[in-house]
Specification:
By secondary structure, the chain is of the alpha/beta class. The protein has 2 domains: 101 residues, Translation factors (Elongation Factor Tu (Ef-tu), domain 3), CATH 2.40.30.10; 134 residues, Nucleotide-binding domain of ferredoxin-NADP reductase (FNR) module (Rossmann fold). Helix content is 21%, strand content 34%. The protein has a 7-stranded antiparallel β-sheet with strand order 4-3-7-1-2-6-5. Strands 10-9-8-11-12 form a 5-stranded parallel β-sheet, sandwiched between helices. The relative contact order is 0.14. Bound molecules: flavin-adenine dinucleotide.
């Protein structure tokens, strides 16, 4: 999909839970942005590149898309900024100019499976929420969701047959087996199975060990991605993610 740059403005900025901040961005440039991108992602350009210097960018999910408007959810760290992107979000005010580049295609759950396993932390909550909203209303499965505070469990319009299990961890990135342990406890009925998981890098590796190596889910049945890495900026995380994908002989997701 061709990517476009859009110069937009902040339309609204509000805390929606103790550890999640929502910013709505928009403007006429979104007329060039494809529709149907909820759950897809874009690059938030915090500093444009200049000669010899790369642009400072961070990756965020399109939680909702309306005409000329996008809602974006920023996971905070103990209610505070993690780095420049989350700082930007907390300072964002109506009318602030900003630029994005995108989109990257949504990664929905594949339709037609008997049961779904879904796992993610707060960075993946926007993509998981968008995916759950778009799933077949008859879908069945379990989603395990790592949040920092019980009030971070904001309403998600999931199919009735998808059970949402929240796990509270106030220190994201410090308990890599939390999500994989919870998924192992899910009773899986006989039939076809698909899974979707995204979270911190070490947690992703634990989930991959279970879903790909133990359950032998194939790429058609499994989407798994690392969204950030504890102690590393996104720029540094990208290097580790690339090395990991190369070592696995797998495409970067
Ligand atoms: C496809 C994709 C979609 C994504 N969508 C979203 C989204 O919709 N919402 C969202 O919040 N994140 C999302 N992320 C993750 C987001 O890009 C990273 O969390 C990013 O590092 C945050 O940038 P920053 O400038 O705030 O922190 P950075 O400068 O990148 O990092 C600074 C420090 O904060 C830590 N840190 C980074 N992220 C987190 C976190 N989530 N929790 C705790 N500590 C953290 C780092 O380990 C580092 O120590 C997505 C990532 C990908 C790959």
């Amino acid at each position: 999909m061709a990517q476009v740059f859009c110069d937009l403005t902040v339309l609204n900025s509000q805390r929606i839970s103790p550890s999640m901040h929502q910013v709505t961005i928009g403007g006429p440039d979104l007329d060039h942005f494809p529709s149907g991108q909820a759950g897809g992602y874009f690059k938030l350009i915090l500093e444009p590149g200049s000669e010899g210097k790369k642009a400072l960018m961070r990756t965020y999910t399109i939680r909702r898309q309306r005409e000329r408007e996008l809602d974006v959810l920023f996971a905070l760290h103990g209610g505070n900024a993690a780095g420049p992107a989350t700082s930007w979000a907390l300072d964002a005010k109506h009318g602030d100019p900003m630029t994005i580049r995108g989109p990257g295609a949504p990664k929905p759950l594949p339709p037609g499976f008997d049961f779904y396993l879904i796992a993610g932390d707060m960075a993946a909550l926007p993509a998981i929420s968008a995916n759950l909203e778009q799933m077949d209303r008859r879908a069945k499965g379990v989603a395990v969701l790592e949040i920092q505070h019980e009030d971070d469990a904001v309403a998600i319009d999931a199919p009735e047959g998808i059970e949402l299990r929240y796990l509270i961890n106030p220190l994201p990135g410090t308990r890599p087996t939390l999500l994989s342990d919870a998924l192992r406890q899910v009773e899986r009925p006989a039939g076809t199975l698909a899974a979707w998981a995204a979270c911190e890098f070490s947690g992703m590796r634990q989930l991959r060990g279970f879903l790909r190596d133990e359950l032998a889910l194939t790429p058609r049945e499994l989407y798994i991605s690392s969204y950030w890495k504890h102690g590393l900026s996104e720029t540094e995380h990208k290097v580790v993610k690339r090395e990991d994908a190369d070592a696995q002989g797998a495409p970067i997701q």
